[in-house]
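fwd from M.: "can u put these together and see what the complex looks like"

so here's what she sent:
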Amino acid sequence: QQQVKQSPQSLIVQKGGISIINCAYENTAFDYFPWYQQFPGKGPALLIAIRPDVSEKKEGRFTISFNKSAKQFSLHIMDSQPGDSATYFCAQHKQGAQKLVFGQGTRLTINP
Amino acid sequence: DGGITQSPKYLFRKEGQNVTLSCEQNLNHDAMYWYRQDPGQGLRLIYYSQIVNDFQKGDIAEGYSVSREKKESFPLTVTSAQKNPTAFYLCASSVTGSLNIQYFGAGTRLSVL
């Protein structure tokens, strides 16, 4: 089974700080790396995604950085806000497959 | 509103009982998925279906069964063979194609009485 190793498991950041969540993957036959955000009691929702031919993608305060040689990709949340407190999942899509492989999740808490 | 509806929100199972979780989507998506979520273990794929009347086992299919008789519906049955069914169950759907952007329902929390 392909795996995505996500770290840290939990993260506490002060309001206004930068939150950084990392994911490492094992196989290079992946063509799409999405991040999902999940609030308690709700289903995950797509936050931002990147293809491996791009090193960085920014949408508002959220940025994905992709390092193909290190097989790693990271989510950066700038100016973190209490409303960002949620669980974040990275995922990877294998070319030709019709499913995603998810990381274990990171529970992010932003202290006011 | 387009979306994915899961019901019920909460469900309780007695020992030896089969229970069925409902998932309906009106997004006209061909593919549908069932995940199990446990604390600290992320989302684990139970079953998925790319087309009506066809489905494939995911990583943890034992003790579960599904059907896909209609494009809009993908019910999951948690059988008595599943000895540890307490979890949060999530249904998702996507279009088929080069990417796999999945849209999720609000989930069903299953507990054992």
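replying to her w this: DSSP finds no helices and eleven strands in chain A.
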